[in-house]
Amino acid sequence: NSLGPDTLDILFTDESWIEITDISVGKRFREIMVTGDFLRVKGEAPFTVLVADAPAARIRFNGAEIPITDSIRIDNSASVTFTNVSGKFIRAYQDYVSYKIACLKK
Length: 106
Hints:
1 helix; globular
């Protein structure tokens, strides 16, 4: 955890390995979590999250529940980057590009 305006909350419904990188300060957290574990990370986004058993993790970013089902790979893992641009949640690079294009069209 570091100082910053962003909060990442993760609740685990089953055992899963997780790695979280706070890119802004280069800190990395790695741990095996079990059913019922709750993890809170404070810092400044972007955060990169790698979850080995993604369906076992319920993720909230700045209070909003974020579904990661679209990011789950064939091995049940997911890698997601959480970024906050102008108060809007941006989940992945392609979302960021879409967001930037939408802003340019305004």
